[in-house]
Each structure stands twice: as structure tokens, then as C-alpha cells.
């Protein structure tokens, strides 16, 4: 493409995804799976107000040999479209389980749970839970230390998905509803889905969504999640003011750049696991 260089730059989705480029990305994705171009980064989910790590979310990264770091919002849809999301998802889950087992040796200061994101297409595959169960057995991971994050759209009117969530719960995993408020949010979802954690989308937290309306939603979510016995996590917290406000309206869990960006496993260990004061064992709900 003649631009060359700049391998460290984030891939720019606006520049790309012309049809033939998208086809090339798809082809590259298959190679990437074989060539080990994926890795996980880890972002703390913290307790308020102290900022101790209550858990940690695994986020997938693709280091493309020529394009640089391709963000998951770009390549996950491609992986779904070409049918490799199952394979990729299995890799993520196994990797998270291994990391979890490695961190368990920190004993009391190990993070209580690792969250793994699962896309709609993965959850729609009737073989998904069997794959999960096989990986759990193979890695010897402690299911109580795992949490699966799904979006509203993945479970809305999707009986297979909901049934699989129930089976995951039977295996001992917990379930979070991710990006809450961005899909076709329905409170009845909380009756049909076995949800343990609700993650409030960052657009409400940042005030992007309808300003005052967003603030009212954020505040009222605490009321019904508490009544349902569900833990609420505020996503995308970027400032101390937001953190203070969230705490003042009742949030006990948060995530965002203000507390910690997604980081390499070693950085997470240095910052949280080797610093017992920054880790809180079994915090309320997560
Ligand atoms: P998500 O699960 O809702 O993850 C949160 C996203 O927000 C992450 O983007 C994270 O880096 C970003 N974020 C965290 N704190 C802040 C903040 O304070 N401000 C802002 N502006 N952003 C923040 P990322 O890593 O690019 O992931 C995007 C999405 O890709 C994820 O959204 C998730 O839906 C999907 N994804 C990531 N990893 C995986 C994976 O392993 N499997 C699947 N199926 N999907 C994944
Ligand atoms: Mg997530
Ligand atoms: Mg989210
Ligand atoms: Mg998201």
C-alpha cells in the first residue's frame, strides 16, 4: 500500500475495510491463529473507593506482522463471519485458564476472578459449553475463578444462548452482562438469564449518552441490581470525579483507565499481585 513503516501504530479502521482489504484481513486471521499472533492483556476491575483489584478482565490483542495492533472491535466480527471465532475463543479461554492457574500460586492475593469475553456467535454454538468444559479439565482451572462476559444482544431472544449460560452456571462459572444499556436492554432479561454481574456501559458513565439521562440511568441501576442480588460494575471510568460520583451513588465496583489500562500479565502481577494492599479477596459480589 506504499505507506510502509509505522508498524507500532494502531490499525486505523476508518482507512480500511474496503471489500478486498477485508478479505485480506480474513485470510490473515487464519494465518494468525497458526502463527501465534494473538495475546491477552489484562485490565483490573476494582473495588471502590480504594481501587484494589477485585477481578481482572482478559482482553484479546492481535499483533499483525504488517498492520500493527488490530483492535478486537475490528477483527472479532471478521472472525465471526469467516467461522474461526470458535477456535479463537477456545484459545482465549485456555490462555485465560492458564494465566489463572499461574496467578493462583499467589494464594490469598491472587485476583478472585478472570473475566473472559464471549461473542454472540460463540454462545450460539451448541458445542460451546462442551468446549469450555474440556478446556477446564485440560487446564485444571478453578471454575470459581472464572467469569464469562456476554452482551445483551447475544442473549436477547436466543434460547440456545440462555440455556448455555445455565449450563455454565452449573459448571460453577459466573456470568456478566457486558455493555449494559447499549443493546435492546430489557429488565426481563434479568429474569431469564442467570446474571451475576451487570457491567454498565461506558457511554453512560462518561456522560456521552444523553447527559443527564445517562446519569439517572447509572444511579437507578444500583437500585434494581441490589434488589436482584446482582453486582454492578461501572465501565469506562476515566476520571477521579467519575469514580467519586459512582461511589457516592452506591457503586462498589468499577473499571477504566482511571484505575488501570489493559496491561501485560507481568505488569498486572507487579502492580497488583506483588502489592497485597492493592488486592482485595472476595469483594462484594464479583
Ligand atoms: P468490552 O468487553 O466491553 O471491553 C471494554 C473495552 O473498553 C476494552 O476495549 C477496553 O480496553 C476499553 N476500556 C477500558 N477502560 C476504558 C476507559 O476508561 N475508557 C475507554 N474509552 N475505554 C476503556 P478493547 O480491548 O478494544 O475491546 C473491545 C471489545 O472487544 C470488548 O469490549 C469486547 O466486546 C471485545 N473483545 C475483547 N477481547 C475479546 C475476546 O477475547 N473475545 C471476544 N469474543 N471479544 C473480545
Ligand atoms: Mg467485557
Ligand atoms: Mg464492556
Ligand atoms: Mg464493549
From TrEMBL:
Domain EAL: start-end pairs: 22-276
Protein name as catalogued: Bifunctional diguanylate cyclase/phosphodiesterase
Natural source organism: Actinoplanes subglobosus
Lineage: Bacteria, Bacillati, Actinomycetota, Actinomycetes, Micromonosporales
Amino acid at each position: 500500500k506504499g505507506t510502509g513503516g509505522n508498524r507500532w501504530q494502531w490499525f486505523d479502521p476508518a482507512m480500511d475495510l474496503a471489500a478486498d482489504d477485508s478479505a485480506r484481513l480474513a485470510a490473515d486471521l487464519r494465518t494468525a491463529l497458526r502463527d501465534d499472533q494473538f495475546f491477552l492483556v489484562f485490565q483490573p476491575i476494582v473495588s471502590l473507593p480504594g481501587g484494589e483489584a477485585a477481578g481482572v478482565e482478559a482482553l484479546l490483542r492481535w499483533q499483525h506482522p504488517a498492520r500493527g495492533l488490530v483492535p478486537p472491535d475490528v477483527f472479532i466480527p471478521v472472525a465471526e463471519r469467516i467461522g474461526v471465532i470458535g477456535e479463537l475463543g477456545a484459545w482465549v479461554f485456555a490462555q485465560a485458564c492458564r494465566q489463572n492457574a499461574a496467578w493462583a500460586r499467589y494464594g490469598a492475593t491472587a485476583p478472585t476472578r478472570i473475566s473472559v469475553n464471549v461473542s454472540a456467535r460463540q454462545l450460539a454454538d451448541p458445542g460451546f459449553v462442551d468446549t469450555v468444559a474440556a478446556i477446564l479439565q485440560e487446564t485444571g482451572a478453578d471454575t470459581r475463578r472464572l467469569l464469562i462476559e456476554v452482551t445483551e444482544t447475544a442473549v436477547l431472544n436466543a434460547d440456545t444462548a440462555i440455556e448455555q449460560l445455565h449450563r455454565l452456571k452449573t459448571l460453577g462459572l459466573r456470568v456478566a452482562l457486558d455493555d449494559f444499556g447499549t443493546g435492546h436492554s430489557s429488565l426481563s432479561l434479568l429474569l431469564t438469564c442467570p446474571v451475576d454481574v451487570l457491567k454498565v456501559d461506558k457511554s453512560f458513565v462518561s456522560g456521552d449518552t444523553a447527559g443527564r439521562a445517562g446519569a439517572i440511568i447509572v444511579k437507578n441501576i444500583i437500585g434494581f441490581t441490589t434488589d436482584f442480588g446482582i453486582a454492578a460494575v461501572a465501565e469506562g471510568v476515566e476520571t477521579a470525579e467519575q469514580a467519586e460520583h459512582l461511589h457516592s451513588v452506591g457503586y462498589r465496583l468499577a473499571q477504566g483507565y482511571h484505575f488501570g489500562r489493559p496491561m501485560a500479565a507481568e505488569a498486572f502481577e507487579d502492580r497488583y499481585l506483588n502489592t497485597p494492599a492493592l488486592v482485595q479477596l472476595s469483594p462484594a459480589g464479583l
